Amino acid sequence: MPRTLRLAMIGGGEGAFIGAIHRAAAALDGHWRLVAGAFSSDPDRNRRSGEALEIAPERRYSSLEALLAAEAALPAAERVDAVAIVTPNHLHAPMAIAALDAGFHVFCEKPMALDLNEARSIAEAQARSGRQFALAFTYSGYPLVEEARVRVARGDFGKIRLVQVEYSQGWLSRPIDREGNKQAEWRTDPARAGLGGCLGDIGTHAFHLAEHVSGLQVRDLCADLTTHVPGRRLDDDVSVLLRLEGGARGTLKASQVAAGDENGLKLRIHGELGGLEWSQMEPNSLVLRWLDRPTEIVRAAGPGLAEATLSLLRTPSGHPEGYIEAFANLYRAFAMRISDSAGTDLDSAFPSVDAGLRTMAFVESVIANSASDKKWTTLAPA
Amino acid sequence: MPRTLRLAMIGGGEGAFIGAIHRAAAALDGHWRLVAGAFSSDPDRNRRSGEALEIAPERRYSSLEALLAAEAALPAAERVDAVAIVTPNHLHAPMAIAALDAGFHVFCEKPMALDLNEARSIAEAQARSGRQFALAFTYSGYPLVEEARVRVARGDFGKIRLVQVEYSQGWLSRPIDREGNKQAEWRTDPARAGLGGCLGDIGTHAFHLAEHVSGLQVRDLCADLTTHVPGRRLDDDVSVLLRLEGGARGTLKASQVAAGDENGLKLRIHGELGGLEWSQMEPNSLVLRWLDRPTEIVRAAGPGLAEATLSLLRTPSGHPEGYIEAFANLYRAFAMRISDSAGTDLDSAFPSVDAGLRTMAFVESVIANSASDKKWTTLAPA
Amino acid sequence: MPRTLRLAMIGGGEGAFIGAIHRAAAALDGHWRLVAGAFSSDPDRNRRSGEALEIAPERRYSSLEALLAAEAALPAAERVDAVAIVTPNHLHAPMAIAALDAGFHVFCEKPMALDLNEARSIAEAQARSGRQFALAFTYSGYPLVEEARVRVARGDFGKIRLVQVEYSQGWLSRPIDREGNKQAEWRTDPARAGLGGCLGDIGTHAFHLAEHVSGLQVRDLCADLTTHVPGRRLDDDVSVLLRLEGGARGTLKASQVAAGDENGLKLRIHGELGGLEWSQMEPNSLVLRWLDRPTEIVRAAGPGLAEATLSLLRTPSGHPEGYIEAFANLYRAFAMRISDSAGTDLDSAFPSVDAGLRTMAFVESVIANSASDKKWTTLAPA
Amino acid sequence: MPRTLRLAMIGGGEGAFIGAIHRAAAALDGHWRLVAGAFSSDPDRNRRSGEALEIAPERRYSSLEALLAAEAALPAAERVDAVAIVTPNHLHAPMAIAALDAGFHVFCEKPMALDLNEARSIAEAQARSGRQFALAFTYSGYPLVEEARVRVARGDFGKIRLVQVEYSQGWLSRPIDREGNKQAEWRTDPARAGLGGCLGDIGTHAFHLAEHVSGLQVRDLCADLTTHVPGRRLDDDVSVLLRLEGGARGTLKASQVAAGDENGLKLRIHGELGGLEWSQMEPNSLVLRWLDRPTEIVRAAGPGLAEATLSLLRTPSGHPEGYIEAFANLYRAFAMRISDSAGTDLDSAFPSVDAGLRTMAFVESVIANSASDKKWTTLAPA
């Protein structure tokens, strides 16, 4: 277990959803202590947020620049180790690059950037800085997602033929982006959200999960992007046909206008011998179906799990772990990697620049294909 | 309740699966009595099947032609009322046309025919004969499918935006079509199955269910047909993007190589206000999700059902009805229509020629699109 | 497959629920043809029911006595083989005895009789007549109940420790028995229903299922019978602690005032090595949980089933079979036993007199115990 | 939001399960910081645990006595606010009393004590100290348990008739208590676990949940305690019939030999108008069934929740919260109560002495009844 590391947060002031989740996830296992932050560009809001979080007054910064400068000047034993970036998407790239270049590790919200070019700049900054970069593709932190990944990789299902992923939400069914909902507002604003709406916000999660668990890269895709709510400036619904390496076929469906749906991320993969199904809303079960024997339900902390899965669990079987715990698994892996001197194999323990580059390439390819009459668009291999 | 009608069956001899289902479905409510048949082109098998079914020897016919000739010569009070055609697909059209033209009502297995042209010929025969024609899109016979249809039609969900249908089987994961499995053999033989493999066998079910419940016709589609099992002559996996009338978007996924999956037909429809989900493997529940109130589970014979749904139920709530009961609902509606003098509005009570024409047009469009580099293929409105 | 047998029905006229179920179950597989009946003591209702069922006028009888006399006088090749008794409980014993003594096989609704003495009289009549007697403990006809029974019997779970059965309905939550609901009326009338209300109606089902699947007899019980709805004359809620042979412990809970519940019959059995769970409302799955390996879901017509289970299935996996099919399995076994010359081992294929005697002894023991301050009442072994 | 409070922990050193859970739960929302502890009576283990948890060396105490003395001597601004007691059961009472008497708030593991007398001593110490006492009946911290409680209390279901609670585990199916499993060892040792085995360990959870949500106290009970595993010194299986105030009837079933079961705590309550069902293993759904309208699924953070429920949630709907989050709700309520000057209404926000007294009275009554031939034992009202 590493010593407790020190974290700074950019964004995530009063009322922000994801900042609070990052803080809980970072706190859960005791590997991180939040000691500094620039929580809001509004000075009053920044102050109130800092007070509520019991941040020392001198470490409540007015901006990322101020934070980086002041923290870099502190002795190593006091300086923050990493910066968590939980701002709207358009700030991810400049902030991540600045923080990496200032010598700090970075834990960044997804999507990585506004476009692939920006993502590449982050990747370059990561490489030249030698610092760690973690990307909040939270769902890969669930223990049974890891179990699924391990089982596919070791060939339990034989050659993979089908990959089906869907991410179904309904919260943007009404035009709340024009009725004062802040979360909806920036997520549907191209200047702040980037090229994709639903595509960037949750389509990237679905894409990442599919490639991460299947171990297969998407080669070609054919997409239909739609905006159902009149006046909305970005897509709110995504349908994609996938052709993956090795001949597997796939579908990716993401929607934020599936009225009544909550956070329905679901992955199914089938090979020659059987298939798996995992659903984020019941994350502690992994369903395995077989050609020649009864269906199995592998359960968190139950019998039959891989070593890698067990390391991601905190409670005995039947005591559900949830979203914050999955998130905490990323923060824990991030802490362990930082505490460890070695720095290779970035994507195995937590999503990093490779995941970011793949997902941004996916976003650009979907947008290009959707605007075209041509059926298939090739996604360059990573 | 009509008098009991007399049924003849073509095909469905010893060992055939679907013939036995037709017989059980026809018998369940007492509206039909099987009194004649040509169960097999093999004389011994035909005789043994007829004996087992207690068909009088003189009404065990050697062929459809013999059956039609002999039955037509019987007095009306003895003559069969309808012919059930449960042969491989390539015989549907010639047999249905012959039976209609001989003055018999026809209950035909799906798909309607080998191609759209054949289907049109059946439709013409139906029209000129004035006889009833029922098509075994069984899943529309489930009570909660009717409930779903009624609720969409009366606007419970507002304008429909999303239609997602999938039909996932795994029984063709191995090359059993080349290992002596009769069912697999003819279903993957273009001469007997028609243009589509998985597409014709179960993709048509999925398509019919989607249009039937949504009340919306597919306008354009973009498809990816695949054959995963080496040496197989027809597709075993289908992925389709759909654009429906009124702007709704959809996906259709059908596979017979989803190893371990049984008979996973599932439909989801979302409108502006909420959505529904129905799954064939748990057919007695209909899940309704809403933007602004808790999820509801509408149950067979439970509170809140439409009149039309209640008429399709036989048991009190909590006593599950299944596939044979759904099938029997088609046979009952078919009997009632025949007993009734009126003959319009064919598709509302049981799938008929319109359903057949739509599904055959779908099959042809998918095949054309899948072979093309062009993204969208328009499906002519019915 | 036997020749089609001829069935007569007593009771089950217009509007009766269970008569229609018996008819559907008997018809489903083609082993029975309903050719005679005394459907109602009301002559008009009897006539209308007989017409609707297309019973020949001369075989629409005014009473059981008339039926038995006339049918016995017919040539063997025309005479009915069996009589289905679907009247209220107080008529079961006299009618079953009369039918058996007249030389007919009997399929009787449950509970077997008003009390244990009556049940013994039926058992004696069955023994002296040499005729078959089937009792409608329908739930033992479900394929996966048979699978559960086989697996317990062959020791999959080791020595059995726990048996938990529950049967939860809500339809008697309001005093509908005093508001004109016919079903509720006679079921809560001691003169027609017998000693137990909920206890006799569904408690007996639960008890039979528990002993049938566990293969263990209840030795001692401790019960709490309650009537929740004011003015009701029989119990509407039953709770029982069970001690079974071999040291297993159990609970039995039955209620008809669990408002909102449908027909929640559920059985759980645990042994040293694992346990099973079966739920009537999702009857095509059997859940197996294990100490040392993942949970398994055994599915109707899926891999891993016992031979005995396969013989009870009609459709491929994923095509749900329901309550009528389970009922039809009893009628099929009844037909096969009758067609077969051998006559032993009555309870293995369908519930018979032993099941009836056990359940009536259970009813009497529960009532005696519930009225007593003594904790345990011994149930005499069969 | 209160300032961060300071926590000390007694027990919970390396390898202990529940100590780690307390730490995660206390850390999650940032209301508690662990600054002191006596983690083990073994000095090396205590030191290693303290180091791993980054406790300052001078605050790693060798015993509770040392901790209380030293912390009491610190200035108020440094002194710990509360002590978490996570030792085996026999130490709960002496330690809780000592800590309360020394002026510290106490968060104690359940069961409260070895017997009712001890529990009363804690209650007296709590009263005379004026300090807060929280008891880890964790399951009452789940948001949808609160929703259930609110809905029962406001009369959604009418008068309550049925309360059914069960807690099913299988981890003690084998004699692991004699094979070196530390958790199993002390939990089956009367000297350390108290009067009840399964009864004290999980039966108390079930009892607390039932009374907490129903708002009804158990008046009389009838119990059957069993030890299935040979040589075990305490019960491993509990069955109880309950009679609650107002005429409601109930059952309580707890087992630790339900082989294959994980942590199956489930509560069902029915009133005149409908019923609820909550299951700990899928804690983010509350199922509501109704006499006269469709079943509803109320979801965490979904529409229709009470204010009190919303205050217990951290993530948007569809992002599962689990066991640690429920536990954290207790720690948060505990912190808020301490930070607040008022001190009444102890049991509403977190389980306190009343819950402890009720559950210990339950344990004693079950043991007394189980050993008796008399059917009912009265549980004195609180």
From TrEMBL, chains A, B, C, D:
A Pfam family per the record: GFO_IDH_MocA_C3
GO MF term list: nucleotide binding
Ranges in a coiled coil: none
Residues in GFO/IDH/MocA-like oxidoreductase domain copies: 146-276
SUPFAM superfamilies: Glyceraldehyde-3-phosphate dehydrogenase-like, C-terminal domain, NAD(P)-binding Rossmann-fold domains
Domain Gfo/Idh/MocA-like oxidoreductase N-terminal: 6-135
InterPro entries (alphabetical): Gfo/Idh/MocA-like_OxRdtase_N, Gfo/Idh/MocA_oxidoreduct, GFO_IDH_MocA-like_dom, NAD(P)-bd_dom_sf
PANTHER family, per the entry: CONSERVED EXPRESSED OXIDOREDUCTASE (EUROFUNG), OXIDOREDUCTASE
Protein name per its UniProtKB record: Oxidoreductase
